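Write out the 3D structure for:
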Amino acid sequence: MMNQLLYVLLMGPAPEGQNPIVSFLPLLLIIVVFYFFMIRPQMKRQKDLKTYRESLRQGDKIVTTGGIYGKIAEIKENIITIEVEDKVRMKVDKSAILKDSTDLQQQK
C-alpha cells in the first residue's frame, strides 16, 4: 500500500489529455478508506467511553486501565474512590476507568 502511495506521488505530470483530478483519485480513495475504517471507529469508541465515564454512579463495578477490579465507593469530580476488597479503598482518576466489570462477568 505504501508503494502505491509513493507511486502516485512520484508519477510526475499527467500525460497530455488526462485530467489531473484522475491522477489524484487513488490518493483520495486511500484517504477515504483510512477515515471510514480507522479514524471514524476510533472517534466513536472515544465518545462512547466518555459517555460511560460520565454515567458512572456509586456502587457500579468497574475495571481500571491498570486491570484493577473494584466497586465505586465515592465520586468527587475527577477522582473516584473504589473499594477493591473489604474496606480497602483506592483513589483513581476518572480517566483511568476503562469498562464495566459486569459485562466481563456475563461473557463467561
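Residues 49 and 55 are 10 Å apart (CA to CA).
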